[in-house]
């Protein structure tokens, strides 16, 4: 189980660095990647970037404020879908 945990951690880190699936397979030698782990790594990296954008926006960076507003608008559009109403989980 230790090897699986180590392998999963490596896959997550490589995914967070935005390597493609093919590149991760080449680096790790693991042909059956757990896509949940890949997605978790990518989303964690995205979250870190968003934290940085928010911090810069709060400090008055106009480009960061615009970027963050764009993220908010994208999230709202996705959550509302095509009918303009908020989706429920």
Report on this model:
The mean pLDDT is 90. The protein has 89 residues and is mostly helical. The chain has one domain (2-83). It is built from 4 helices and no strands. It has helices at residues 2-16, 21-28, 35-58, 62-80. The radius of gyration is 17 Å and the shape is elongated.
- Indicate the proportion of strand residues: under 5%
In terms of quaternary structure, what is this?
single chain
Largest sheet report: none
Order of helices and strands: HHHH
Poorly predicted runs are: none
Broad shape:
elongated
Helix proportion: over 70%
**Count of β-strands:** 0
Number of domains: 1
Mean pLDDT across the residues is 90
Termini Cα gap = 34 Å
In DSSP terms (H or I, runs of 4 or more residues), the helix count works out at: 4
Round the Cα radius of gyration to an integer and report it. Answer: 17 Å
- Could you say which structural class the secondary elements and strand pairing correspond to? mainly alpha
Features:
elongated, 4 helices, 89 residues, mainly alpha, 74% helix
Summary, kept brief:
The chain is mainly alpha-helical and 89 residues long. The chain is built from four helices and no strands.
List the helices and strands and how they pair.
Elements: H1 2-16, H2 21-28, H3 35-58, H4 62-80
Helix pairs in contact: 1-3, 3-4
């Amino acid at each position: 189980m230790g090897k699986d945990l180590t392998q999963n951690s490596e896959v997550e880190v490589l995914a967070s660095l935005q390597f493609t699936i093919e590149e991760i397979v080449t680096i790790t030698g693991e042909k059956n990647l757990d896509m949940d782990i890949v997605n978790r790594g990518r989303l964690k990296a995205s979250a870190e970037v968003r934290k940085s954008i928010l911090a810069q926006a709060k400090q008055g960076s106009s480009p960061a404020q615009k970027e963050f507003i764009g993220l908010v608008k994208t999230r709202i559009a996705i959550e509302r879908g095509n009918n303009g109403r908020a989706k429920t989980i």
